[in-house]
Amino acid sequence: MFPLALAILAVGFALYYWGNLRQCLHMMQLNSYYNDRFLKWAKGRRAGRAQYAYMFCAYLCLLAVLLVLRNLLPLELYLILSGAAFFVLAALRKKSTDKKALVYTWRARRLLACAGLLCLLFLLFLLIVFRAAFWWTLPFWLAYLNIAAYLVVLAANTVNKPLEKAVADSFVRDAKRILAERPGLKVIGITGSYGKTSTKNILSQLLSLDFGVLATPESYNTTMGVVRTIREKLAATHEVFVVEMGAKKTGDIKEICDLVKPSMGIISSIGEMHLDTFFTMDNIIRTKYELAEAVGGEGLIFLNTDNEYIRARELSQPTVRYGTSGPEEGRDMDVWAADIRSGPSGSRFDLCFAGGGAVSCQTRLLGRLNVLNIVAASAVAVKLGLAPDKLPRLIARLEPVTHRLQLLPPGPDFQIIDDAFNANPEGSAQALETLGGFPGFRILVTPGMVELAQREEELNRRLGALAAACCDYIIIVGESRAPAIEAGALGAGFAREMVYIAADIQDALAKAGSLAAALSKDEGPVTVLLENDLPDNYL
Amino acid sequence: MKINIGLFFGGKSVEHEVSVITASQTAAAMDDEKYEIIPVYISKDNEMYTGPDLLTPAAYRDLPSLLGRSRRVTLIRDRGKVHLVRYPAGMLGKPIVADLDLAFPVTHGTNGEDGSLQGFFQMLSLPYVGSDVGASASGMDKRVAKLILENAGLPVLPGYYFRSAEYQADPDKALAAVEAFHSYPLMVKPNNLGSSVGISPAHDREGLRDSIELAASFAEGLLVEPMLTDMREINCAVMGDGEHTEASACEEPLSTGEILSYRDKYQGGGEPVGKAAGIKGGAQGGGKGMSGSLRRLPAELDEDKEEEIKALAQKAFLALGCGGVVRVDFLLNNEDDKVYVNELNTIPGSLAFYLWEAQGKSFRQMTEELVQLALRRDRMRERLIWSNDVNILAGMPRGAKGAGG
To answer: Do residue B386 and residue A399 have CB atoms under 8 angstroms apart?
Structure first.
């Protein structure tokens, strides 16, 4: 009887605990297994505080009940009842909808195994200390484990650190070996505060007919992401490897370059991204230029010369300067776009080369920023031997990248411009400008911008002010950044009744739907811009 | 890291042995610094084997012992890669023999040149050299090829198609129908065979009966064409894809009978006429495949005719949507100097390398270009489906019914 009672308790608890542990694991993964970032999330969990208070009270009650029951019930029945309570709690748990799902990688599994082991060790320790009394207090300890799930995950992550380091090192060595076998492989690095993913995608699309191209997949822009791409995807038929290089701190870019040794590099932009981990603007600039150093005198570095930080920096190595304004505007450029006309159906422009010669191009990609990205990719493609007169056809065929200024097929009520993966001030401004070019009723849906340290409020205020000029209605998702955005919009003369604060993205889209339904047909089409919709750990 | 190329040959086809020879020639020509050649022999009952000796034609004298030394394999796609795996897997050792980056089919005739093998590669998403499924299938089907070529405005002989079942049901009616189509002499062909197997001329009703029965033993569909009595055969190869094509030198295969028989084509003539000007091969007799047969290379043609044939060859290549290297066979009527496209070989014997060598392109360079063409087509295909990676059903409510088309 006793083992059965214990089994019921164990299963009930496991069911209940699993939800909590899984969420902590998920957050650990979204925070790239960094303890400090994970802790920041755990502390900031809004629902957390209320939940803890409520749980603490519940446990005090449980303790009281336990003291009474001890004399009234046999241990077996007591354990079964506790188990049943956990079953009920598990059933009551609210199902969460994740935007970026948890992926059960080997690392996540190892972390989970370690967390489980730590829980068992904890209980074993208590059994040794309390002996017979342990069984009566077991439900209490289990409940405690549940509250402390994030501490368990944190501890497991710390315990696993040396193991993970060894695993990662062996992967890096393997990736280096694979690259060493491919001396002819042309590696092109792309870094920048914004535009690097779009540039990477455009470049691989431009090259993908004439070369075997491998590009790092979406957001695999860390050293380990690149290592994984090399180990899993690099084939003998690949001739060009396009590597997106992301950085959150100085040295990040250098680390990736040391691995892949790029012979060409693009610095797509320099802006205020990740200021909270870089601390100063100078650190950001230095980090991006680690790519220029890696490419060196033998290679070629492509610089977005529209960017003032990049213009301000002289380089004594072979460079190709590109931008969206040419010699007519007094800019010294090698490749540039002139006569740009952007609208709701894309852009037209002339792609000009310093040696003379220009081709007129058109693209379905929205926004002027994409024209800049196309110029960057075209400059590289030409240096790789693509004839400039082949470019217009390839550019006309470019497909937008998902969640990046992507015009979705129109729905019954409204059409959506999906810019959900954008998360930087310049990109947002461009997206709003693009929205402004659309006819009819324009709605912005955004949770605001994060990760900009002390400047967050100011930037969200600015976002609000820009939105006031470009759209007819603003829906802010979540309350944390709403005041700043709203203040910015109202300050720019936006009407308060045209702002709505939504609980989540579903609520926001429902609101947009009801707005569209309420509008009469003659007010034209309704367009919704989804801007900066971030993964769960920020909401 | 070399590019792993699976060289597929043999197959359930009357040209099985010729394919073994083409394979050994191709493997010898390819750059082994760049490519790892993995031979995949397809037996006459369509089982696949790999092993180093499979590229030595002499080893096929004792087939059971050769297969005993080789490994039975199959192809499996797993996580974006195509593995050549041992079958049965066995208890010990890794089942994966090699990962293939590219397939190079040099199978001739049915099951290998007619789109079947190409369809197998396509299902595996394995890029492959040569024409795709549709072009291979229509190239092998003489009636379909004729219809496509005619539709594209290319000169072809008129053809009459019927099934052998029709003939068996009512021979006299079928014979009368053939005679109504065109007067004798006629040429009777199995509709979907490469090479010259099963083809014979008919000069009267008795001969027609024999010809039909011969052809019917090779194929269900039969094709009858008027026979040109005073003509020459001219062959010209084309290499490229939908964007760019190139024509080779022209050859005139020399025959010993009315048409170039299978013996003529692949086993060489009896006479060592190699000394005659412009005639290559033949001297060593059998075992050289298509490159060893009797021919006049380049063919004796005036400049205009040669240009016309080369242009027609490229047009035919494009009309069928071919890829890689294709040999286009022409009939040149000596009476009125008119040219007809006779047939397309989407995997020509010896890959028609001798036609390219004749104008300065080595076999090695040819294989290099073929590999690049295959990879390019694969990339083109990937581009077409680039953005359809969305699961439309992901947003379906549970238990919802489809719209019903």
So the answer is: yes
